[in-house]
Amino acid sequence: MTVGQVLQRVTNILSRAGLAEPRRDAELLLSRAMDQPRSYLFAHPEAAFPADRLGALARDTARRRRHYPLQYLLGAQEFYGRPFAVSPAVLIPRPETEVVVDQALEALGRMAGPRLRGLDLGTGSGCIAVTLALEQPRLGMIGVDLSQAALRVAAGNAHRLGAGRRVRFFRGDLTEGLSPRARFHLLVSNPPYVSPALREEVDYSVRAYEPAEAVFAPPDGLAVYRRLLAGGARLLLPGGRLVLELGYDVQDAVLELGAAHGWAVRGSRRDLAGIVRCLEFSRPEG
User: Fold this and answer.
1) What is the DSSP annotation of 155-200?
2) Rounded Cα distance, 187 and 171, in Å
3) Residue 268: exposure state from Cβ atoms within 10 A (0-12, 13-18, ≥19)
4) Residue 256 belongs to what H/E stretch?
5) Tens digits of per-residue pLDDT, 190-200?
6) Half-sphere exposure for 282 (CA within 13 Å, toward CB)
7) Cα 97 to chain center, whole Å?
8) Which pLDDT tens digit goes with each residue over 9-66?
9) Contact status, residue 132 vs residue 118, Cβ threshold 8 Å
């Protein structure tokens, strides 16, 4: 079979599975199977598809047909213009998290001093910690995650993208285990924020394949926010900031929690859908 014939066959299979972009997905799967850029498919549709790659393509197509995330199959996802490695051990970086980086960079830009220290809680793939370190030369980051497998992915990303000397990773449960003397200019987190009661409303590919502990926060989606807003202030230096990603329906609850613990809102940012996706907090005296 030719490249064009195989491409059409895979597109048809994925289309029947109800995937949103079957042609794009098919192109990416063929590109991966052939180890060729997508442009090769367009330039050489009449070329013979390598017979020894049909098995691998069939396996990938079968998994994608079951809505297995394309990013896991390809092993990468772009974030803030950089390719981050991903695996089923980590949440797939999403565009809305880029607004968290934007807000954090704005907060850091207002801070004086030759060196700044930041802490990314629940670092996952390391996309926030690594991006912040690369975008803000004065910043050194620590990423914390409970999953050792996630930390291996994050450390690999830091090394590959050139932030290995500026970002360190540690296993831990949020702020627990940090030195009592540890202080930071920035705390940032994209915590799990979906209530288990809303599980069936979450996209099937997310709830079926992405790490549940990075998506769901029993019992009501607010557990991690409670912990960070109750205990995060002790980790901040004077003038420091806490930047949190928000679920689409938790803004009011997080604002109430912040006010109850004495935090002041210093900024917010919306995603492309117009939803407030992050809040920047300081202590009232900060």
Assistant:
1) HHHHHHTT-TTTEEEEE-STTTTS-TT--EEEEEE----B-GGGGG
2) 16
3) middle
4) helix 251-260
5) 999 999 999 99
6) 15
7) 7
8) 999 999 999 999 999 999 999 999 999 999 999 999 999 999 999 999 999 999 999 9
9) yes
Residue pointed to by tokens 């915590």: 191
**β-strand partners of 279:** 244, 268
Query: How much of the chain is helix, strand and coil, in % rounded to 5?
Result: 45, 20, 35
Q: Supply the DSSP symbol for 46.
A: T
Single pTM value for the model: 0.95
Residue 235: strand, helix, or coil? helix
Cα separations (Å) of 131 from 59, 166, 209?
33, 11, 25
Show the tokens assigned to 166: 């500026």
Structural contact between residues 186 and 67, judged by C-beta atoms closer than 8 angstroms: no
Sign of CA dihedral 220, 257, 121, 234: negative
- How many CA atoms does the CB half-sphere of 244 hold within 13 Å? 28
Q: Please provide residue 211's backbone torsions phi and psi, each rounded to the nearest 5 degrees.
A: -60, 120
The four Cα atoms 266, 272, 276, 277 give a dihedral, to 10 degrees, of -80
Q: Are 120 and 129 in contact (CB under 8 A)?
A: yes
Please confirm whether the linkage preceding 219 is cis (ω < 30° from 0).
Answer: yes
Report whether 171 contacts 151 (CB < 8 A): yes
The tokens 């030195």 sit on which residue?
179
Task: Give CA–CA dist 144/127, Å, rounded.
Answer: 12
Query: Are 129 and 108 spatial neighbours (Cβ–Cβ below 8 Å)?
Result: no
Residue 88, token pair as written in the block: 């089923």
